[in-house]
Design goal:
mainly alpha; 0% strand; 85% helix; 11 helices
Length: 256
């Protein structure tokens, strides 16, 4: 077990070291100017010296990410339950959801900004548009994966539809819900940045645009690394939730 845990930590660290070494070699061999590709030490210096700015702007992006993700959960789960349990609703709305997912969210962002302005509301909608589809797809698949034998057994015991959902369908679907939530959380970060790119005066996305417009490439890379750290933290939050709901997961899922 200890060896497996060390492998899970060690291999990513080795991968990071290889990437940094390749980065240094590219800068050294190509003699690239800082404005094109700064060396890792310059990016690290920018990250340290501008850390208060990165922290304040990152907190704004983090709030947008979490709020939009929660909105995607609140809206997506009921839609998934309705689609999974109603064939007419599935036939009517699932193709529409697929078509909506196929539209690039960058193309929708300006329209959302016109409708809702440049405040937090428009960014929440953009994050929701990006994040809700994985939740609907995975939750629907989980609800449909409930063994038919369990449904028949519950009906023979005169269980109500609510009891069937709470005692059978929902526990069976929870692993799928958590998988969709992990994907949705990473996409939520992208949605927040899209909103900040289109129209914003704060957040890491806005800081990234400002840094590139001023040719401050080290700060731009520092903002990118801050965004990656934000994504990791957001993903770990979902992992923590998964650990909390582990007692309600099926034995194979919780033990995996």
């Amino acid at each position: 077990m200890m060896r497996q845990q060390l492998s899970r930590v060690g291999y990513p660290l080795v991968g990071v070291a290889v990437i940094i070494l390749a980065w240094i070699l590219i800068c050294w061999i190509g003699r690239l100017p800082t404005v094109v590709l700064p060396t890792p030490d310059k990016v690290a210096a920018a990250f340290v010296t501008r850390f208060p700015l990165l922290l304040s702007e990152g907190w704004i992006t983090f709030k947008e990410t979490l709020s939009g993700f929660v909105l995607a959960i609140v809206v997506g789960l009921p839609i998934a339950v309705a689609i999974a349990n109603s064939r007419p609703l599935n036939l009517m709305f699932y193709p529409i959801l697929v078509a909506l997912q196929s539209v690039p969210k960058v193309a929708l962002a300006p329209i959302v900004m016109i409708w809702l302005g440049t405040g937090i509301e428009s960014k929440l909608v953009i994050v929701w548009l990006v994040a809700f589809f994985p939740i609907i797809v995975d939750t629907t698949a989980g609800l449909r994966s409930t063994p038919r034998e369990l449904h028949e057994l519950a009906r023979s015991l005169r269980a109500t539809p609510l009891q069937i959902f709470m005692k059978i369908q929902l526990p069976a679907a929870l692993p799928f819900v958590m998988t969709g939530a992990k994907v949705a959380m990473t996409l939520a970060v992208i949605g927040a940045v899209i909103g900040e790119f289109v129209s914003s005066s704060e957040g890491l996305g806005f800081l990234l645009l400002t840094a590139t417009s001023q040719l401050d490439t080290p700060l731009a890379f520092a903002a990118l690394f801050a965004l990656s750290l934000l994504g990791v933290i957001a993903y770990l939050l979902v992992e923590v939730v998964e650990m909390l709901v582990a007692p309600w997961l099926p034995p194979t899922a919780s033990g995996h």
